[in-house]
């Protein structure tokens, strides 16, 4: 088999609104709003500098079916740059930007192949080797049936790659679209499965590779850590993967050891050291204060609601870097203020709520003829904010009740 090198990306979510974020300064807000576009530009720049044989984009190029106009324009410009460099692009649309979506459209250059709503197997020759790439786009938002049976089996002597925007049947953390079992993918005997839809970077198999690269840019606290894409080299059945970071703003959950803290200035100093150890160019941080003794916990709980977050934002700000403290949580494990069994059950249930649970709980409020029109869109970012705040309030209220 000839050696080929390509980029595997997915879930660009260009035009993400980042609703639900609070307390950001004007420049920070602008940076966050532009972060998906900045991450995309880093993908394009890397491709132009390294000249891969081709680029894969596996679904959810845009965040919404109406396809933000500015995002479409920037995407079209990126495709034109790749066209001028002679780099082919194979892309599919997913559940967020399905083919039935509304809005204007841009004409993409001839180097871009867009898969339609039935599985296609594109064939081309690369340095004497035949390469097949199979994939499909979502024709509608909800593709709940399995599409695996429509993917062709691998032909002898051919490099076969599959593009699939979907999730495992057994997935309990995400809405299951275009479901599959790992065994079904292995049975196709492909050389590489380029997956999309799950925003957490993971490898379901390496022989052959069945890979989620994650998204290019995290969008809220449930998408923490480095984000980017994979550069893949396939040689004689062997795969070499290198992860390339692209995020412009990184979401992180950082634990602060407060075992030696007695005064607030000590907490500020320890937290500042922890943040400086993270090399991301921009950070949105959830702080968890751990190893609190009774005196320190009571000191922190006596601070008026919200004041601790604001004080930490000010104390931990950096003149040369975007650092934003989003939430502060107090770890009460092991203290007398620990939750009662009922409190634990209630907090645990809220922590496990998914999108449909929130929609059902808030359905009456959002459907109210007077108040509904003033409420923000109930997207993942806002749900995440509500989840953290609700659990924190339960923990504080139930802990205080247990002490009385």
Automatic annotation (TrEMBL):
Pfam families attached to this UniProt entry: Metallophos
Domain Calcineurin-like phosphoesterase: 4-200
Gene3D superfamilies reported in the protein's UniProt record: 3.60.21.10
Keywords assigned by UniProt, alphabetized: Exonuclease, Hydrolase, Nuclease
InterPro entries (UniProt xref): Calcineurin-like_PHP (IPR004843), DNA_Repair-Maintenance_Comp (IPR050535), Metallo-depent_PP-like (IPR029052), Mre11_N (IPR041796), Pesterase_YhaO (IPR014576)
Keyword Nuclease: yes
An annotated Gene Ontology molecular function: exonuclease activity
Protein name: DNA repair exonuclease SbcCD nuclease subunit
Species of the source: Planococcus citreus
């Amino acid at each position: 088999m000839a050696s080929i090198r390509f980029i595997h990306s997915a879930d660009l979510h260009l035009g993400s609104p980042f609703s639900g974020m609070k307390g950001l300064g004007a420049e920070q807000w602008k940076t966050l709003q532009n972060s998906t576009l900045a991450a995309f530009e880093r993908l394009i720049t890397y491709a132009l500098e390294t000249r891969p044989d081709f680029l894969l984009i596996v679904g959810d190029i845009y965040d919404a079916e109406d396809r933000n106009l500015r995002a479409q324009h920037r995407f079209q410009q990126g495709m034109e740059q790749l066209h001028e460099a002679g780099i082919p692009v194979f892309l599919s649309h997913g559940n967020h930007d399905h083919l039935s979506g509304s809005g204007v459209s841009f004409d993409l250059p001839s180097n871009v192949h867009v898969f339609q709503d039935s599985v296609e197997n594109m064939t081309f020759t690369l340095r004497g080797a035949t390469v097949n790439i199979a994939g499909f786009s979502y024709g509608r938002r909800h593709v709940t049936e399995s599409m695996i049976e429509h993917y062709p089996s691998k032909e002898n002597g051919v490099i076969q790659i599959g593009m699939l925007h979907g999730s495992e049947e057994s997935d309990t953390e995400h809405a299951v679209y275009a479901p599959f079992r790992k065994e079904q993918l292995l049975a196709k005997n492909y050389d590489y499965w380029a997956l999309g839809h799950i925003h957490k970077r993971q490898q379901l198999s390496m022989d052959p590779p069945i890979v989620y690269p994650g998204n290019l840019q995290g969008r809220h606290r449930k998408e923490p850590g480095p984000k980017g894409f994979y550069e893949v080299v396939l040689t004689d059945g062997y795969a070499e993967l290198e992860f390339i970071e692209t995020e412009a703003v990184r979401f992180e959950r950082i634990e602060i050891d407060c075992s030696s803290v007695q005064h607030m200035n000590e907490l500020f100093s320890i937290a500042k050291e922890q943040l400086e150890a993270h090399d991301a160019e921009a950070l949105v941080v959830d702080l968890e204060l751990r190893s609190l003794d009774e005196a320190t916990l009571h000191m922190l709980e006596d601070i008026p609601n919200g004041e601790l977050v604001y004080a930490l934002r000010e104390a931990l700000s950096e003149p040369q870097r975007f650092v934003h403290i989003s939430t502060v949580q107090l770890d009460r494990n092991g203290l007398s203020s620990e939750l009662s069994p009922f409190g634990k059950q209630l907090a645990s249930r809220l922590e496990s709520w998914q999108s449909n649970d929130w929609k059902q709980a808030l359905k009456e409020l959002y459907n109210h003829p007077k108040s509904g029109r003033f409420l923000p869109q109930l997207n993942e970012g806002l749900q995440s904010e509500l989840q953290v705040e609700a659990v924190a309030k339960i923990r504080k209220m139930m802990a205080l009740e247990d002490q009385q």
